Amino acid sequence: MPVAHKGLCYEWTEQSCTCTESTLSEIAISVEGLSKHYKVPEREAGLKASAASLFKRKHRLVKAVEDISFTISPGEVVGFLGPNGAGKTTTLKMLSGLLHPSGGAVSVLGYVPLKREPAFLQQIALVMGNRNQLNWDLPALDSFDLYRAIYNVPQADFIKTRDAFIELLDVGELARKPVRNLSLGERMKMEIIGSLLHTPRVLYLDEPTIGLDVTMQRRIRKFIAGYNQRHGATVLLTSHYMADVEALCKRVIVIHHGHILYDGGLAGLVESFSAYKTIGVTVAESDGIDFAGYGEVVGRDGGKVMLRVPKAETTRIAARLLTDLPVADLTIEDPPIDDVIEHVFATKSPEVEG
Amino acid sequence: MRRYFNFYSTVMKQAIIEQFQYRAANYFYMIGMIAEPVIYLVVWQTVARAQPGGEVGGYTPAAFAAYYIVWTLVRNMNIVFTPYGWEERIRHGGLSADLLRPIHPLHWDVAFFAGWKVVIIVLWLPLAAFLAWVFKPDLHPTLLQVVVFFFAIWGAYLIRTMLLTVLGMITFWTTRVSAIFELYFAIELILSGRLVPMTLMPPWVQSLAGYLPFQWTFYFPIEALVGDLPTAALLTGLGMQVFWSAFGILLVNVIWKYAIRQYSAVGN
């Protein structure tokens, strides 16, 4: 399994995201052999099982996270991927100090998160897409003022940061309306602004774009990228929307059943886990041609036919197509990242070691 | 220190804005709450009038009126972040967000409800005037009594905040705590002076109440204003409030230390 990019730092520029070797020896987040086990009671449905559980309670040990290790350099934006229940949120909670690990060691900015020292909390933020932290009855501006007081941000810095964020997300008018009158997307913008007013050096984003429309998702992605660029913040992002990950992260950590399946570049993920490639072939006259003989037909777009073929067979099948047919155009592509991720989650068993 | 002053003033200011926004709801709530003391008052006034001397345990009908009208303000000062709020906060994981802030969550509770009290006091004044017009209380406090009363209602607020925080934190260990809360409120009703002035209680109840904090949250603030406590008793009362507040804060901190490990270990 490729464990690339350790000690590397991503530098974000307006047009592209480039990866360069960092000279920084500092590590923002270090996780070593981290585990979290829960003991959960369980019983069958029904009165009989209920009565039995009064005398003998059955428990099951759930290994939500099992022996995971990784490091993240300052300024890196890392996508944390996995299906529901994979252990992503549990890990984020351990990294922010909300959960007590069952084993292993965690260090964030040199602090042990579990101690929840004010100096540590002052430098982190956890944004959960499904949680509302703003005062429902007051305009977001009032909640922002509360955050200023909580984080003891000097007034001048607070106003400068707040106004800059408000302008970037274009929410000047909305910030004056009671939060209860805002739409989900508008509220999420406010939540993100509120979470960043103390300019945290480490930012955990748990599904920040959940339930939002495409335009709003794009806006929030752009804002997060901009924040990372301007403040050099380390960002750990979980999302089920691959567009979030593709736009923001060059490095991804894939977690499944509490184990790390992959830690490396986004492109490498496709390379490692995709058993197929997609050949797009355009022929002058496609009527009467049986494309099924070359691969699985997964789509047609005008004269272009999309074929899914085993990765190892790609070159041979492409050569056959060029020989057999009057090909006007031929492309070979990796499958969409969504398909790859789905494939990974569907096939890897719990026993797979990270 | 300056940081906390800044935090408290900001949160209190927001609570005032928010609660004035809901002034009608607050008012209806306060009016609804008057039913309880008015029932006590009417019953005790009737009993007092039926006595040969026209009083019960030194309380004339007008003295009862003073007691139960001041009761309405003290009762409102006694409303703090409830154990049910703690239950909600712990079961639904809202505490997680609070724990990620570099300031103890209890500060928010104290500051927010303190701001709310400012609104309550303002709204209470016309209500008290109306009740005074109807029930004609006998109330002639000295300046010292007024000053002690002012501090005593805030002392009561602080003690009760700590007590209910301790109660609420039981939720860290078990989530079915409503029955415990109800039992607590029943004991408090009898031993605080909320049901009747403590001097009308049997001696053994008064003696038991002497070892507990409840009467310093209810009976003492009321008596400080309406009774004829000597200066020494007034100052001792404030001293007892300081003691119980300090004890409550200590208890909250000790329990919090263990409770939060529980929360961290299980997670929400």
Describe the structure.
The complex is a heterodimer of chains A (354) and B (268). Helix content of chain A is 33%, strand content 29%. Chain A is of the alpha/beta class and 354 residues long. Chain A has two domains: 2-34 and 65-270, Rossmann fold, CATH 3.40.50; 275-333, YebC, transcriptional regulation domain (Alpha-Beta Plaits). In chain A, the strands form four sheets. In chain A, strands 7-8-9-5-10-11 form a six-stranded mixed β-sheet, with helices on both faces. A four-stranded antiparallel β-sheet of chain A has the order 13-14-12-15, covered by helices on one side. A three-stranded antiparallel β-sheet of chain A has the order 4-3-6, covered by helices on one side. In chain A, β8 (202-206), α7 and β9 (234-238) form a beta-alpha-beta unit. In chain A, α4 (140-151) packs parallel to α6 (184-196). Chain A starts with 7 loop residues before the first strand and ends in a 7-residue tail after the last helix. Residues 1-25 and 349-354 of chain A have low confidence and may be disordered. The model of chain B has no long low-confidence stretch (mean pLDDT 92). Chain B is globular. Chain B has twelve helices and no strands. Chain B starts with a helix and ends with a helix. With 268 residues, chain B is mostly helical. Classes of the chains: A alpha/beta (354), B mainly alpha (268). The interface between A and B is medium-sized, with 30 and 23 residues.
Question: What's the structural blueprint in terms of helices and strands?
Answer:
The complex is a heterodimer of chains A (354) and B (268).
Chain A: E1 8-12, E2 17-21, E3 29-41, H1 47-55, E4 59-72, E5 77-81, H2 88-96, E6 103-108, H3 118-121, E7 124-128, H4 140-151, H5 155-169, H6 184-196, E8 202-206, H7 214-231, E9 234-238, H8 242-248, E10 251-256, E11 259-265, H9 266-273, E12 276-283, E13 296-301, E14 304-310, H10 314-324, E15 327-333, H11 337-347
Parallel strand pairs in A: 5-9, 5-10, 7-8, 8-9
Antiparallel strand pairs in A: 1-2, 3-4, 3-6, 10-11, 12-14, 12-15, 13-14
Helix pairs in contact in A: 4-6
Chain B: H1 2-21, H2 23-33, H3 35-50, H4 61-77, H5 83-91, H6 94-99, H7 105-135, H8 143-168, H9 178-191, H10 203-210, H11 219-226, H12 231-266
